[in-house]
Amino acid sequence: MIRSSLVSLCACFLLAACGDNPSDKPGDNPSDSPVPRGATVPWDEYEAEAGVSSGGATLEQTTRGPWLEGTLSGEASGRKAVTLHGPTDAVAWTSRVKANSVLVRYSVPDQKEAHLDVYVNDVKVATLTVNSDFAWLYTGPNNTETHNAFPRQQVDELPQNPSTSDVNFGLRLPWNSAHHIYDEAHALLATDGRETIHPGDVVKIISPDASAELPVTIDFMDLELVPEPLSAPAGYVVVSEFTQAGVVRALQEAVDGGKPGIFLPPGDYVMSHVSPALPKVYVPAGLTVQGAGMWYTRFVPPPPQEVGYNYEFGFRLSGDNITFQDFAIFGTWRNRAARYNKDAADLGNWPWDSYDGIGRAFDRYMHNNAVFKRLWIERMIVGGWVEGGNNLLWQDCRFRNTLADGINLCNGTSNSRIVNCTARNTGDDAFAMWSAITWDKAPIGDTPWVHQPEGPNQGNIIERCTAGLIWRAAGFAVYGGHDNVIKDSVVYDTLRYPGITVDNEFAPQHEFSGLTTLQNMTVERCGGRMWWDDDDGAQGDETTRRKWGAVWLFAANPYSPAEPSSPIRFQGIRLKDIDIIDPVYYGVLVQTTQGQRIEDTEFDGVHIVMNQSGEFGMVANDSHKAPPSPFSGKIATTGSITLKNSSITGHRANSGNLFSKDPVSTETFLFKDGGGNIWTGDR
Description:
By secondary structure, the protein is mainly β. Among the domains are: 43-154 and 172-224, Jelly Rolls; 229-404, 3 Solenoid (Pectate Lyase C-like), CATH 2.160.20. The protein has a ten-stranded parallel β-sheet with strand order 25-27-30-33-38-40-42-45-48-51, with no helix packed on it. Strands 26-28-31-36-39-37-32-29 form an eight-stranded parallel beta barrel. Strands 1, 3, 4, 6, 12 and 14 form a six-stranded antiparallel β-sheet that branches. The longest helix is centred in the first third of the chain and has 14 residues, at 4-17. The protein is globular, with a radius of gyration of 25 Å. It starts with a helix and ends in a 10-residue tail after the last strand. InterPro entries: Agl_cat_D2, CBM6-CBM35-CBM36-like_1, PbH1, Pectin_lyas_fold, Pectin_lyase_fold/virulence. It comes from Melittangium boletus DSM 14713. Residues 21-40, 50-73 are annotated as: Disordered. Residues 1-16 form the signal peptide.
């Protein structure tokens, strides 16, 4: 599959090769060097299917889409993996790099545990414990249940004879749709920065526990050379106790002593709450929280056997000019939103505990000039939920195995950047910008149910980032705002959603104004089957669900919740130099709801290649998400997109599947020919 630095060169060459003008080919203009796409990362990745399998190891693959959730190939990177069925089965690779750490993405059956032995040149160097503790979520047939996503143990607590109120809450048994079936395990082989794996060494993985009853699947391995731990900067307060109380005391000492920050030596800092009413650590203005490195300094909750899973902890900012860098946050979150509380139900009380809105490593108002560098955030609900703030920087961060967003710039965030970050296996958008209207200010006019907004997101940039293996939402998403940019990035292998979403469906939300630009991006094997069945009576029947595009434009709100007489505009969208490779179904899907239209939107250099998968290049159809009554029925997509210098090619492309519009959208939406395309005329 195309990944990291490889995508930079290959995608740009592909883009040039798709053009009609021979002078556009690489090398004809030496000054036009390709702009890299995706994050530059310190690890080297080895797909299991590219290794040498032995014994009875078998290849998991789906040769054509659709790739489905809950399947070992569907949720694997590149849609392929290798399964070990016995203790003599193995997969091995020849290392291309120097390294001293190993990470493996794996899947084991639910409620099982096994081990992976790692060998270098036939010498065992590590044993990884692999289990299902943070994988295998189950849902019912609709979006609410996909959002909630319970582990097996909580599904078993659901009422087996749901009442009418349960259905209204969005719960319909059986909850038998499994997904999020992969997790990761890692080991550091040397803590002094020396390499223990060299180019040419053979790295082999076996599972001594593998059997017919306990198959162990390997998706990929990452090798990384981790430098030695950082030392305390001069003048910093060194944290001397590996507890939340010790961190809080050190922050206060830094304030009292006029110190620049605190330093956290290597170790696991157990975030047992000083006060259960204040589970987060508030960092004073002007301080730096400095770790010894993301492989060495980790913030973790107390063990689950002491406090259970889903333990709330993390950081908030108390002012401007705060920096966090060089540490990791590992949570124990197993589900995102609602949990059925059997004890409460037995007492006749409301049986649902709500968890949505917590589980965020960093959240709330971010103030000005905050910096987040070299952070590893895993098994939380969200990595960073950014509310407001100006001139923020997130750089070289890793967001992995979260139950919702990797990072979301929200509620009036401005002039901020997310640079060279990666996100994989997230349960909502990996990287998002949402111009939500906040609910905690003074009421507006005659609409007391809507409160004063912070303002739209504006002037933000997401660049050189990579998102992959997203199991519920998009890799990159923009919801309203103006003059925001996503560029030079890669998204691959989304499971149940587009790779790129441009959308204004979440009221109350600021409209799109100015320009919203997505440029120089690769979207590979993205899209999937829609999860909702609002009016089709399908009860979650996969064969009747509608389909996403790899890129989705959705103009959804016909009015402003804050000012009902003012329409929310969907305009100023610019997609330039976008390569859409093997969309699961459609390359681009365009939809609107009643009273809404797409205006002033242009695609320039959008190239769709359908070889391994893909049914249509570009589609405009009924959204299947009509606004509340009195709107109902089929909703025509309305407006237009101007296309320039674009193409739809590949073995699966033909004159009949370049474009598609359903009957209600035929006269209301237009794909305009702006010139330079491989087709001629409006569609």
